[in-house]
Write a structure and sequence with these properties.
Layout (H helix, E strand, L loop, with lengths): L7 H4 L29 H11 L21 H14 L3 E5 L2 H12 L5 E6 L3 H10 L6 E6 L4 H9 L4 E7 L11 H11 L7 E5 L17 E5 L13 E5 L1 H14 L5 H34 L3 E5 L8 H10 L6 E6 L4 H10 L4 E2 L9 E3 L11 H7 L5 E5 L5 H13 L2
Parallel strand pairs: 2-3, 2-4, 4-5, 5-6, 10-11
Antiparallel strand pairs: 1-7, 6-7, 8-9, 9-12, 11-12
Helix pairs in contact: 3-9, 4-8, 6-7, 9-13, 11-13
This protein binds pyridoxal-5'-phosphate.
Length: about 425
């Protein structure tokens, strides 16, 4: 064998699964079982010693299968494969993106700690940060997505309680990028023996194909695997990735909160992995055509999409620094429009489905102001730039010319 290192697109077809352990099945069977049989009582004892951290694993030992809330072959096979693009050491699968976000945050935060986060974030994350973590005496402080290093540093510098810098990049729904490398530098500068500041990045919109924040120094990356990983709008799941050490801690929290996924969902995501890259590339190609159309349309005042000059110099610089593509999520603003105009467009489109979520092979369109981000106060929406005339579209695999014709006739009705 040569030492040529294979690309993720090749690696995922063989990594993490040995057919000989499953009767030679080329594709992993679904291990639909809640519990696993030990051969001997001593084997059960050892499995629990490792699972509960009562004793360290020895060289060559691996965690035994015990119970599907703890681990399951389908989850483990998937966890081994999904790290290929991001270059993570380990991954933890969850029952939803929110399961990944909440369990991961709770694994590293305790009463008296502070989490600072880029604003806006997905509505559910927003609710968890603004309303739920404070119930556990965990403070949460927003800062604008795309903030400069100095602005982020000001929050961390004089506050020894900050333990997590949380970025959602690009942000849902404003598509603003946040600066992962600067967050890393700040975390390194202010971490010491008493506190370790972790950088967490929600990589749902661009990852794993067009952005890999671990390479810019993130400690943990989080995904709604409901989106591109699943890719077909037929499942709900989440993934956290990072070092073995950190993911080990995340898995302890997952076991006790019960936020692990199930064998069938893990299997379905596994089936989606082979097409992940080509789906994301083709969806991006289609999105670029829609972006060109929307930018030139007289009824559209602005298009938010990574790398566009109208996103501003800093955003373009961040895009060049941390992304290798532009993705397939577009937000656009109707000229002089309000809710009524936005709704007229949403009710007139024929091909995109009027639905929240994103990253599937079918185009989805929605109104963040009254749907995904309706929980935010008027002031919070205003700060975050989520306005009544904003429409978010997740571009799928329909013929882009048909999508453009459809948007054209819908915009005519506005
Ligand atoms: C950026 C982002 N993160 C997290 C989530 C939450 O994921 P889930 O719906 O799988 O819980 C979403 C859902 O839309 C999202 O858009």
């Amino acid at each position: 064998m040569s030492h040529h290192s294979v690309k993720p697109q090749t690696e995922i077809f063989s990594k993490g699964y040995d057919p000989q352990r499953s009767e030679g099945a080329a594709i992993p069977p679904v291990f639909r079982t809640s519990t696993f049989v030990f051969r001997k009582a001593s084997e059960g004892k050892r499995a629990f010693e490792i699972a509960y951290g009562l004793d360290a694993m020895k060289q060559g030992e691996s965690p035994a299968l015990i119970y599907t809330r703890v681990n399951n072959p389908n989850s483990e096979i998937l966890e081994d494969k999904v790290t290929a693009w991001d270059g993570a050491e380990a991954a933890a699968l969850f029952s939803s993106g929110m399961g990944a976000i909440s369990s991961t945050c709770l694994a590293f935060l305790k009463p008296g700690d502070t989490l600072v986060f880029s604003d806006p974030v997905y509505g559910g994350t927003e609710y968890f940060f603004r309303h739920m973590l404070p119930q556990f005496q965990i403070r949460t402080i927003p800062f604008p997505a795309g903030a400069t290093k100095e602005d982020m540093e000001r929050l961390v510098k004089n506050d020894p309680t900050v333990k997590v810098i949380y970025l959602e990049s690009p942000a849902n729904p404003t598509i603003l990028l946040s600066d992962v490398a600067s967050a890393r530098e700040i975390a390194d500068t202010y971490s010491n023996d008493k506190r370790r500041i972790l950088v967490m990045v929600d990589n749902t919109f661009m990852g794993p194909i067009f952005q890999q924040p671990l390479k810019q120094g993130a400690d943990l990356i989080l995904y709604s695997a409901t989106k591109f990983f699943g890719g077909h709008s037929d499942l709900v799941a989440g993934i956290t990735m990072g070092s073995k050490e950190l993911i080990g801690q995340v898995k302890v929290m997952r076991t006790i909160l019960g936020s692990n996924s199930d064998p069938d969902t893990a299997w379905l995501i596994h089936r989606s992995l082979g097409t992940l890259q080509i789906r994301m590339e083709k969806q991006q190609e289609n999105a670029l055509k829609l972006v060109d159309f929307l930018r030139a349309h007289p009824k559209v005042s602005k298009v938010a999409y990574p790398g566009l000059p109208e996103m501003g110099e800093r955003q373009v610089a961040l895009w060049k620094q941390q992304c290798t593509g532009t993705g397939s999520l577009i937000s656009f603003f109707l000229k002089d429009g309000k809710e009524a105009e936005a709704f007229r467009l949403l009710d007139a489109v024929q091909h995109p489905k009027l639905a929240v979520s994103l990253g599937g092979i079918e185009t989805l369109i929605e109104h963040p102001y009254t749907m995904t981000h309706s929980d935010m106060t008027l002031e919070e929406k205003h700060h975050a730039g989520i306005t009544e005339n904003m429409i978010r579209i997740s571009v799928g695999l329909e013929d882009p010319d048909d999508l453009i014709e459809d948007l054209k006739q819908a915009l005519d009705k506005v």
